Amino acid sequence: MSKEKIKTVFLYKDYFTNFLDKQKQKVKDKIIWTFKLIETIQQVPEDYLKHLKGTDGLYEIRVQHGSDIFRIFCFFDSGKLVVLANGFQKKTQKTPKSEIDKALKIKNEYETEK
Fold it and tell me: Which helix H or strand E contains 14, and what residues bound it?
């Protein structure tokens, strides 16, 4: 029995796909599993989806596979659509500013084109 979708994860252009294509299958599976979780539960735990402080509506989807940590930036459109921006493998405690800037640029581009 599949759960009812509350939100939809949406691929915008190929920013995210470029990242996903480079990952191992097990990592891809974990990312897809996380997307399904986000789509089907009302209140997604911060372990999986967290608002980035100091940004205008930018969130990070958090995926951990073994000791590898991945982050996928996203934002909401009309509350129901989770638009994926870029993804990266997290190697340091702090999220690189360049990755946040890239995600904000993608968000801006999306909103401009809409």
Answer: none
